[in-house]
Amino acid sequence: MVITGMSYEELVEKLTSLGMERYRADQIADWIYKKLVFDFTQMTNLPKTARNDLSQRFGIHRLELSEVQTSRDGTRKYLWKLFDGEYVESVSIPYSDRKAACISTQAGCPVKCSFCATGQSGFERNLNADEIVAQMLLMEFFEKEKFDNVVFMGMGEPLLNTDNVFKAIEILSHPKLRNMGLRRITVSTVGIPEGIEELARRYPQVRLSVSLHAPDNAVRDLIVPLNHRYPLEMVLDAVRRFQEITGKRVTFEYVLIRGINDSLEHARKLSEILKSFKAHVNLIPVNETGAGFQKPSRKQIQNFAQILESNGIETTVRAEKGADISAACGQLRAEKARR
User: Fold this and answer.
1) Which residues form the catalytic set?
2) Amino acid 329: pLDDT
3) CA-to-CA distance for 261 and 75, rounded, in angstroms?
4) Which domains, and CATH codes, for the chain?
């Protein structure tokens, strides 16, 4: 059994069933989540017999660091080996005012967006809650620094793995465990309507980011194959219900691809469909991962952004991070598979 996959209540139940005092759960949680100690034998305020017993009965995490790359801008990309030989990635991203962890929820991705290296490499399985949580804890351990924010935006579609993702949110936010504020957690989705609504009901304080990438179904069908199942109208209806429940602004991610979705007419259409939302648009020049797509020119990106802003849509062009390393989602895993 792996402790980083247990809720606080489950940890208490397991320990008390073994005859240990309830407060031992608080001590163990403090060592793991606050002090980042992942070896029971080092938990010196536990009796030696308890430490030995815990070491035999439980694991703390199941990730093995396979590789790490560090960018000139401080971005770090981690490649983790899972217990079954699969690999997943996480990214540590420094900003001027905060530090964010971008973590994966699946090994590979079934959505297969046409520009995404993860989608090109196929889908293997969902990650368990312990594998999701351990990514952030281990990055904090290696970097000797706590993260201010966490984003479920790595490999995979979080809302196709809601059981494990929601449990990871519970673990990361619990006051006795990692104690991260729910407002500092973001779930990014390509648009799974039932998952968006469930997130709103269960965790209304968590932030939502929707990977839109197109202003109409014709273009989105080319970029996001799942749009055939969940067309744009269904996704936007779910986002509208999310905002009705939570009152929160939603970020819409839009990867700009030259000649596909970057025209000024696309910008005008995007403005039209988002005008009724409390929205922020994050424009992301496509990362050229080998799929044949190219970034628009800087001038075209600026013109696209200006049209959105002139229509009252708050817009940011995402600053490129980790350009000198394999920081695009799925790149490092794909390189490992080719070796």
Assistant:
1) 89, 329
2) 63
3) 28
4) 3-57 (1.10.150.530), 64-338 (3.20.20.70)
Sign of the dihedral through C-alpha 296, 300, 280, 91: positive
Q: For 296-324, what is the mean pLDDT?
A: 92
How many CB atoms are located within 10 Å of the residue 234 CB?
16
To the nearest 10 degrees (0 to 180), the angle between helices 298-310 and 264-274 is 30
State which H helix or E strand residue 123 sits in. strand 123-126
Give the whole-number percent of the chain exceeding pLDDT 90.
88
Residue 300 makes CB contacts below 8 A (sequence gap 6+) with 256, 258, 262
Interatomic CA distance for residues 191 and 184, integer angstroms? 21
Residues 226-241 have a mean pLDDT of 98
Question: If phi over 0 gives left and psi between -120 and 50 gives alpha, with beta otherwise, what is residue 166?
Answer: alpha
**Looking at the predicted structure, is the pLDDT value of residue 339 above 70?**
no
pTM of the model: 0.94
Check whether 331 has a pLDDT greater than 70.
no
Q: Which helix (H) or strand (E) holds 302?
A: helix 298-310
Closest CA to 132 of 93, 108, 102, 98: 102
Q: Return the structure tokens found at 79.
A: 């490649």
pLDDT digits (tens, 9 = 90+) for 16-63: 999 999 999 999 999 999 999 999 999 999 999 999 999 999 999 999
Which of 122, 145, 138 is closest to 4 using CA atoms?
Answer: 138
Question: How do beta strands 99-103 and 250-256 pair?
Answer: unpaired
The helix or strand, by DSSP H or E, that contains position 273, with its residue range, turns out to be: helix 264-274
